[in-house]
Amino acid sequence: MIFIIFLLTLLSHSTTNASVLDFCVADLSSSQTPSGYPCKKSVTINDFVYSNFNSGNTSTNFFKFSITPAFVNQFPAVNGLGLSAAKLDLDVGGIIPMHSHRGASELMIVVQGRITAGFISSDNTVFIKTLSKGQILVLPQGLLHFQYNAGRNKASAYLTFSSENPGSQVLDLALFGNNLSSANLIKSTLLDPAQVKKLKAIFGGSG
Amino acid sequence: MIFIIFLLTLLSHSTTNASVLDFCVADLSSSQTPSGYPCKKSVTINDFVYSNFNSGNTSTNFFKFSITPAFVNQFPAVNGLGLSAAKLDLDVGGIIPMHSHRGASELMIVVQGRITAGFISSDNTVFIKTLSKGQILVLPQGLLHFQYNAGRNKASAYLTFSSENPGSQVLDLALFGNNLSSANLIKSTLLDPAQVKKLKAIFGGSG
Amino acid sequence: MIFIIFLLTLLSHSTTNASVLDFCVADLSSSQTPSGYPCKKSVTINDFVYSNFNSGNTSTNFFKFSITPAFVNQFPAVNGLGLSAAKLDLDVGGIIPMHSHRGASELMIVVQGRITAGFISSDNTVFIKTLSKGQILVLPQGLLHFQYNAGRNKASAYLTFSSENPGSQVLDLALFGNNLSSANLIKSTLLDPAQVKKLKAIFGGSG
Amino acid sequence: MIFIIFLLTLLSHSTTNASVLDFCVADLSSSQTPSGYPCKKSVTINDFVYSNFNSGNTSTNFFKFSITPAFVNQFPAVNGLGLSAAKLDLDVGGIIPMHSHRGASELMIVVQGRITAGFISSDNTVFIKTLSKGQILVLPQGLLHFQYNAGRNKASAYLTFSSENPGSQVLDLALFGNNLSSANLIKSTLLDPAQVKKLKAIFGGSG
Amino acid sequence: MIFIIFLLTLLSHSTTNASVLDFCVADLSSSQTPSGYPCKKSVTINDFVYSNFNSGNTSTNFFKFSITPAFVNQFPAVNGLGLSAAKLDLDVGGIIPMHSHRGASELMIVVQGRITAGFISSDNTVFIKTLSKGQILVLPQGLLHFQYNAGRNKASAYLTFSSENPGSQVLDLALFGNNLSSANLIKSTLLDPAQVKKLKAIFGGSG
Amino acid sequence: MIFIIFLLTLLSHSTTNASVLDFCVADLSSSQTPSGYPCKKSVTINDFVYSNFNSGNTSTNFFKFSITPAFVNQFPAVNGLGLSAAKLDLDVGGIIPMHSHRGASELMIVVQGRITAGFISSDNTVFIKTLSKGQILVLPQGLLHFQYNAGRNKASAYLTFSSENPGSQVLDLALFGNNLSSANLIKSTLLDPAQVKKLKAIFGGSG
Lengths: 207, 207, 207, 207, 207, 207
Hints:
The structure is a homohexamer. Chain A is α+β, with helices and mostly antiparallel strands. Chain A is built from 4 helices and 11 strands; from the N terminus they run αβββββββββββααα. Helices cover 19% and strands 28% of the residues of chain A. Chains in contact: A-B, A-C, A-D, A-F, B-C, B-E, B-F, C-D, C-E, D-E, D-F, E-F.
């Protein structure tokens, strides 16, 4: 009996305030702020678990890659924690084309096959390496990089990020997958008009 | 010819200052600061690669687990990037006993077998789940947690952290693996003297 | 007359926008975000004052201590300011048992009596000291620590924290004050079953 | 046809979640948080453009200066970006009197005329310089500073800040433009009563 | 025997790297960085203790106040922790004149007597209150404020700050305690020449 | 006489510690840390002034643009302040080709002529606008963008950044101005081999 009373006393400052903020699972239905989503009121262990990496259906795309993201919009538990992940699957010959993440550095752990990855620094130096299963590569924030299958079998990797919302800008889509006018595109890249036209057709761009 | 001149002009503000800070690979021989180690002057692609996860020699310890860290002291490329990783191997019956990370949240990706993981929040709620290959669990910063092999075969996971230097405080070692006096320990935990004596013997504590 | 016109002109960009954010007193009725609570619309000086430390009723608990927190949930003015406080009262023989704060470093100022305080670092080193009135001890973020009355009279201290929401995980409550199964608890701590049973009884745990 | 399918696949994780947070244009109608305003749901290029600097009507005030701010309340696009700007116009003889910004360092670029600017550091050292068109001065966060027209013609400058909400505390208004009692004011500044009375009259203060 | 081997294994990643950064006690002999001082190589419990508050010799100054700071330069343990403290002693009639802290919010805990404290926000609103022993006042970062003894006996308070290096700009010293020319001072404050001359004499200013 | 004594007393905690950190002008000769350069020991007002914008010699390059940066390596005063600037000059027909800044958002203030600027968000939306003198555009961190002269006369702008070290990755130089192999380049961009060869010749690339 005394123990229960004791317990209530000891806990009093947390039980009267349910909202001690050990974590802030995103309430995706509310408006974001610069620090992330408002917190969901009530959570269970299932909020902290993400299971889509083992879905099995990693049907790859035109570039023969598949990305399964566990960013804040897919995995609300990472909201505010400065951390997220994604699964990369590369078919034979597959590649994630040149891209960058405005909001995070990336740490890639190869879990199957062999992957060649490269990034380019602000002074235009190329850093490139072929990695085997179990090796890690770090790709600093905001720099162009690419990853391709360097082997004769499927390859895959876990990608982790220093933000719950890294953002991804795929170069070909940013240039050729929208209505950026060919004139502006040619002027800002020096690409030939024929090249622009060809890639706009592939990536669905207009203008 | 004009192109080379052009190139030098265009690059001029970066070539005269070699130290554009896209990254800051740690110079482990220098003193740390609150933001991390000073930066290594010259880097190559090999600075960004970590290969110890696939060493094969994951001989486990008393608790039948093995941790291979890729924190800043093992993998200097993560210095200042707010991100690191570790490999967890669990033999059958293995467990990482109760511990916490003062400096990072953790994102665990199971890559082999089945792992039961649990954490306890500040209001003493228990969050616990058994995960299979491909599943992710998030463990918020600074809270006590544990992970054990829930299957009949070896299990392993990649652990990633929201800091290059997460810190790890293993409860049994913090309590029983040093010279914290038995009197202070008993007073601050209410453990029985016999229990303290027994565990100090196991974990090498004195006092 | 000209002065009033002048005044309005000079002030124009702040008077048209009432919400200049010198501070952000928490609106506790709104959902938290990772950066804290939304701001209360209208504030007075009383929002910035907290008076519960001098309530006089510091009836202590089982461990003969009393904590009066002035964290964001009790003192909304600290929202977003990265700072909070608490009052610690220790009866003769009193102790705050082993605990940690996931979200803040602590600076303790002894204001009455003598207090022995200790913390354990990630490499399991014990740092311990007995402090008198007027002395300060710093306890780094996320590490296990404890404080007990080292004198023959009441002791008290002001605790300040580097976060408006430090969180507190009391070891005995985290282990024995919830439904964490005895099997998991024993496995993850190596405590004896009898010890677990005894402490679960004291701290109200089940399972 | 295959291209469109490809495109949808490639884009799937962003199209299903419209709220990828490259930016967070402020929804000024919502409550602020410590990290800024919640984000506006839908934006266009016009949200990113601010045009009031070229309004022409820089009618100056009593001190013969005019400030046109582009802080978060005037230019919601800077919300969460840690950056804002203002235009300073100084008539002949004009001055921004002694003031400070609690939340930002300032970088002043002179674009017309000659401006003398000074700041005072915490150890009471005076840093002062007269700048011409094209010169930059940095004014560190939270320190008292002033800027005046040092030439025989109008002068102007662009002021940029390391926060979207720098805050401005103009010394004369803070002291003499409110109901701070003369007794308290005299005690806390050692100004003479007559001086206080005179300046309260100018700046509209009472008390 | 097996236990010692076990222990070494379990500890291996921390013992080989002594520099796990739970804290970073300042090495005051090294150059500061924007994040603070480099870390001292070897520390003991005494590094975490500060004892000057109980020195007894709080001989007050011209304004009848005494400040005993425990900022990073006096108390190196707070380096990088975002937290510091100071002791304020006020004789009867004593006052800390108008001042601001560029780098921290302040939380004042009155421990003796009665203290009137006030601060002025960016929109020139005055917030003022007389506090008794045990009451707390929060003073937001970078705003002008003052504290004076409101009683008939000595008063004192503990001041804590959200930075290890808050900085203090005392208005009278910033204006009148240096070589800021009277011409510039008068122009930027509208103070009368006689007033400036008088206060420069008191505070040791020239020019 | 009493005043001098007073002054010394009042100043005592700052004069004994010269290193109060109101600012941290970079010591460019020391190694950087993740938070920036160590601080220069002794500074004058000239450290806070940058004068290269008005050099007059804005000889533009191949793209008919000139950038004069005032980043930390050119203007050490911005070290640690989270703020920097650059001057952009565009000849008739000039353009800054497609580029991004990994470390900062950009705020562009047009000061002469007309400039068309565009950026592309992570969901591949194009944001584009032609700005006149006095207009501001915000370009969020890490996204591809470009700026060109939209008028018949020279144009110029002040660019300010939310970091002292924004970094710049110019797309054409990152792709064609180094030894990234044509095979890898073609694979990661889908550009035609002839296009790659042509642009490698222009930008000085090999491989």
